Amino acid sequence: MKIALAQISPHLGNIQRNFELHLQAIEKARREKAGLLVFPELSLTGYLLKDLVETAALDPDKSPMFKEFKALSRDISLVLGFVEEKSQEKGLFYNSAAFLDKGKVLHIHRKVFLPTSGMFDEGRFFAPGRNFRTFSTPHGKMGLLICRDFLHYAAGYLLFAGGSEIIIVASAAPGRGLAGKNGFATSRMWELMGEAISRFSSAFVIYCNRAGLEDGIVFAGGSFIFNPFGKRLVQAPYFKNDFLVQEVDPAEIRRARKNWPFKRDDKPEVILEALKRIVHDYED
Amino acid sequence: MTMKIDCPFAAKILTVFIKEELAKFGFKKGVLGLSGGLDSTVCAFLAARALGPKNVLGLIMPYGTSFGEDVRDAIGAARLLKIRHKTIDVAPMVDAYFKKYPTENRVLRGNKIARERMSILYDFSGREKALILGTSNKTELLIGYGTIHGDLASAINPMGDLYKTQVRQMARYLEVPAKIQKKLPTAGLWTGQTDEGEIGMTYAELDEILFHLVDERESKEELLARGFPRAKIEKIMSKIKSSEFKRQLPPIAKISSRTIGHDFLYPYDWEK
């Protein structure tokens, strides 16, 4: 299967222009015969929305743009980022990513871990998601994470425990620290997590980060794909826009899981009980 | 951790920042004050790379004839970069004011000169449809070594997250003329003024302490344990605190249900 990553720079709060960017990338991915195209976090809206969150919000069941995306997903699976507000949950805005396939929204993940410290203020503007769910697709069982979710390693574990064979991370991670060579200091942590989660989950990790600048914040780019053995198959350049297409071999999941039976030997029930005891013992 | 930066990558980020930030607002030209010193020269080098030399205007704004050498260095840098440049003497405007309201206080005089330069930059910003590129570095911004609404005023500031020490690294990488690299830094508000003389320590000491305090978020006790002198740490901490007003917009008294700056919060790059 061919996987395409659209490392784009969305226009902040300008959904119409971003919609066009998406259409262009989808067209490109179709020409490349990709089976899956992944966009970054909040790809439809831009990242640093602040009070623009409410005007950028849309309901995937009703949005005309989603109707078009659904139609376009007939021959290519799409992952895209948006601000979600369902009509039955008015005033609750989620930082969400949707998986579309064969004309349908197969899954929506709402970002659970909203970074709210230092340069980040997501908890102020977004409601947190409450679940990490694995879902079935024609390409295998998948899970979605959004940016900071991935750095909480329990999130990756929950997708692994739920059976995910492909973990997709839509990201808008800034780059910080120029002390090292070749890119940002903070890019290392994403790559480290990509290697660790892919190897110890025997799963593909597909990480699509955005590029460009918003209000002086520099987005790091550097999107990547790791195979189920923890080997990096491809990486986009840091900071600048890119579009990459990578052939992956789904048979590697079985090979990895045969060689390294982390999945067979996982004990979610032991972990669950241990977690219950930990939570029970919390002091007030 | 270290203050050493990957200069080629930093230059790439800053040139993209200059180019894209201007483009978002419909500009392709930049204007900046050129003093003949290190910061404005480095900024001009970045701007020329980002926008193309023809789209950069360097305004050289001496007060009278007292800074002839700096003017020559500024013109030399502009010629080297092939950017447009113009020399405007601010003495007639500044003197006209002080003739009416005389003072011998050189800080008052210096601030007035800095704001005269700002006023000319904004005028040329309008005339030329060019945005003003700020040249204040992180060291100056943190200790408040600049005139509010004077040299601190700009439309975008590509230099604001580089310590002076890092501006020097960038200058070496960008091959800024050696003479400018070796100059003693000065605000140029009166003859014989040097930054290090006024601040009371070298940029090397100052930047090292700032780096640990700000970037590494270390406490005073941790800096003392590293062997930095107490008097210098305390002086710097007090300068940071007393200059916070220069780094923010003025507070607005909140009396309504939604107030600019408090809970009316939009991004600078709104729909850009």
Structure notes:
The complex is a heterodimer of chains A (284) and B (272). Chain A has 9 helices and 14 strands. Chain A is α/β, with parallel strands linked by helices and 284 residues long. In chain A, the strands form 3 sheets. In chain A, strands 5-4-3-2-1-14 form a 6-stranded mixed sheet. In chain A, strands 6-7-8-9-12-13 form a 6-stranded mixed sheet. The longest helix of chain A is centred in the N-terminal third of the chain and has 17 residues, at 15-31. The radius of gyration of chain A is 18 Å and the shape is globular. The N and C termini of chain A lie far apart (50 Å). Chain B has a domain at 7-192: 3-Layer(aba) Sandwich (Rossmann fold). Chain B has 12 helices and 4 strands. Chain B has a 4-stranded parallel sheet, sandwiched between helices. In chain B, strand 2 (56-60), helix 3 and strand 3 (84-87) form a beta-alpha-beta unit. In chain B, helix 1 (7-24) crosses helix 2 (38-51) and helix 4 crosses helix 5 (106-128). Chain B is globular. The model of chain B has no long low-confidence stretch (mean pLDDT 96). Chains A and B meet through strand 10 of A and helix 1 of B.
